[in-house]
Automatic annotation (TrEMBL):
<feature type="domain" description="Glutamine amidotransferase type-2">
    <location>
        <begin position="2"/>
        <end position="263"/>
    </location>
</feature>
<dbReference type="InterPro" id="IPR052373">
    <property type="entry name" value="Gamma-glu_amide_hydrolase"/>
</dbReference>
<dbReference type="InterPro" id="IPR017808">
    <property type="entry name" value="EgtC"/>
</dbReference>
<dbReference type="GO" id="GO:0016740">
    <property type="term" value="F:transferase activity"/>
</dbReference>
<comment type="pathway">
    <text>Amino-acid biosynthesis; ergothioneine biosynthesis.</text>
</comment>
<comment type="function">
    <text>Catalyzes the hydrolysis of the gamma-glutamyl amide bond of hercynyl-gamma-L-glutamyl-L-cysteine sulfoxide to produce hercynylcysteine sulfoxide, a step in the biosynthesis pathway of ergothioneine.</text>
</comment>
<protein>
    <recommendedName>
        <fullName>Gamma-glutamyl-hercynylcysteine sulfoxide hydrolase</fullName>
        <ecNumber>3.5.1.118</ecNumber>
    </recommendedName>
</protein>
<dbReference type="InterPro" id="IPR029055">
    <property type="entry name" value="Ntn_hydrolases_N"/>
</dbReference>
<feature type="region of interest" description="Disordered">
    <location>
        <begin position="243"/>
        <end position="263"/>
    </location>
</feature>
<dbReference type="Pfam" id="PF13230">
    <property type="entry name" value="GATase_4"/>
</dbReference>
<dbReference type="InterPro" id="IPR026869">
    <property type="entry name" value="EgtC-like"/>
</dbReference>
<keyword id="KW-0315">Glutamine amidotransferase</keyword>
<dbReference type="GO" id="GO:0016811">
    <property type="term" value="F:hydrolase activity, acting on carbon-nitrogen (but not peptide) bonds, in linear amides"/>
</dbReference>
<keyword id="KW-0378">Hydrolase</keyword>
<dbReference type="InterPro" id="IPR032889">
    <property type="entry name" value="EgtC_Actinobacteria"/>
</dbReference>
<keyword id="KW-0808">Transferase</keyword>
<dbReference type="InterPro" id="IPR017932">
    <property type="entry name" value="GATase_2_dom"/>
</dbReference>
């Protein structure tokens, strides 16, 4: 269900990251190599990027497959940015929301994408709806599981949580309400990338020349790509990547052990 990629680092043309590599997101729309669920990502696509001096990202989204958009190659060739987030979509359920259901979702300085599916949607997340401000529900761009997961993340961000805490708490909350969900979330503010690996593949590449890429799967054969373990929170800048394990609420409790004294 979907493939996505984010980048922060030195300025690059969008196409150098999304179109030109031999296994770029463009090709992953019809020939993903590591996708565990679904085979073709043709239910929409989108890319968001940041212009110098403007903290609010621009977006270009369409309801159809990326390969059918003849303008996208030109856009990717001439538009340059130091940060982007892009996704190709394999819809969990068909719907009428068209490009509004395509990631990235956006608010303020943030771009967001969800690779996965919420088990039992929509009934499974109904108990979480009262935790959201009414204006957030009325402002949802689409009527799909990803849009509601984004609303849960955004409420935490607006409440003062940092990006890592907002993603981690949302994943654990949704996983508890809807066991078996796949919740690979991807978030950028134009300077950092935060992501979760929860039920599908996630990789990162810290490029020798500068810049960090976080993606559902590698876009080339560079041996420096590293796979992120499942149930992990990733926090990255243009030069560093930090991985933190996430506790699975469905996992059995481990036998208690005495705590080691802190030094």
């Amino acid at each position: 269900m979907c493939r996505h990629v984010a980048y922060v680092g030195p300025e690059e043309p969008l196409g150098k990251l999304l179109v030109e590599p031999p296994h770029a997101l463009y090709r992953q729309s019809w020939a993903p190599q590591r996708q565990r669920h679904g085979t073709v990502n043709a239910d929409g696509f989108g890319v968001g990027w940041y212009a110098e001096g403007d903290p609010v990202p621009a977006r270009y989204r369409r309801a159809g497959p990326i390969w059918a958009d003849l303008s996208f190659a030109d856009l990717g060739r001439v538009v340059r940015s130091t940060a982007l987030l892009a996704a190709v979509r394999d819809a969990t359920l068909s719907g009428a929301d068209a490009e509004a259901a395509a990631a990235p979702f956006a608010a303020g300085p943030w771009l967001f994408s969800h690779n996965g599916a919420v088990k039992g949607w929509p009934a499974s997340l109904a108990p979480l709806v009262p935790t959201l401000p009414a204006v957030d529900l009325l402002s949802m761009e689409a009527r799909n599981d990803s849009a509601l997961v984004w609303a849960l993340v955004l409420a935490r961000l607006r409440g003062g949580d940092d990006e890592g805490q907002a993603l981690a708490d949302t994943v654990l909350e949704v996983a508890e309400a809807a066991p078996g969900s796949r919740l690979n979330l991807l978030l950028t503010n134009g300077e950092t990338i935060t992501a979760t690996a929860w039920g599908d593949t996630l990789w990162y590449l810290t490029r020798p020349g500068g810049g960090t890429v976080v993606a559902s799967e590698p876009y080339d054969d560079d041996p420096h790509w590293q796979e992120v373990p499942d149930r992990t929170l990733l926090a990255a800048s243009g030069t560093d990547v930090l991985l933190t394990p996430l506790k699975d609420p469905d996992a059995p409790l481990a036998p208690s052990r005495p705590k080691e004294p802190r030094t």
